[in-house]
Amino acid sequence: NLMSNIVGALIFIPLIFGHMRFDFNLKLIKQMMRYGIPTIPATLSAMILQVADRPILKMLTNSVSVAMYTINYRLGIPMMLFVSVFEYAWKPFYLSHYEDKDAKQLYSRVLTYFTLAASGVFLVTGFFIEFIVRMPFVGGKFINPAYWSGMGIIPIILGGYYFNGMFNNFAAGFHITKRTEFLPIAIGAAAISNIAMNLFLIPKMNYWGAAWATLGAYFISAVVLYIILRKTFPMQYDWKRLGILIATTIIVYFAITLISTHFRLLISLFMRIGGIVLFIILLKLFGFFTSSDIEKIKLLFRRQK
Hints:
By secondary structure, the protein is mostly helical. The chain has helices spanning 2-18, 26-36, 39-51, 53-60, 63-74, 77-97, 103-134, 154-176, 183-205, 207-232, 239-260, 265-285, 291-304, and strands spanning 136-137, 140-141.
């Protein structure tokens, strides 16, 4: 990791020096400090939010529960990767469009489409991760069969990552208005809540409690940031369509999962594939997909060009 960072720095040194101006702008430095300093406690709170569950779980249970939780937590990586990729693309996108007349409407649609894509990632991962884990790999199974019983927490972790992505979407307003001082409030509240929920839930639910605490903390971070956003950078999100998406995803996932577990492996696999098709059909029946949406998506891609 150290060597890769050194190589990366060396590659960019010519570019950095090519844009250097050797002057001192006190006003600019003050603006940068006012913008950047709040991100320090926000980052520290985010780290607490991400790692506090393991030591608390180990303190209240044992290393076996920590291993069960950690290994199955990592199986939620498809949603983590999706949210990370979205964040990298999202920042330059909203910073290049914030002066557009319809910027807020555009940002609202992005959250809707992000949720649609996240629903697909949730269903595909939730439906098929069990089959992937059971497949033979070089050196044995994907993960040791001793940890298969903990795969039930994967949908919970996927949900937590989704709310983390929703938080990233809301954070755009604070970066645009340069009001980053509000970010530590939301993330700090989530970090404190995460610790409190872990201490309360783990003794009652073991590693399942840690999973629910993670989901709850990310949910709180998104809700708190949205409440502040309404006063700082008001947005009109399409909550009706978001509600349809989330509700349809949850219903289809649990219905298909519960039914398919009573059948043999191959039949169960086909039923879950059918669940993806059912999800799309239900969205169409509920009026989620419209000709207007298709035109807006085409317009979005044309703008990116």
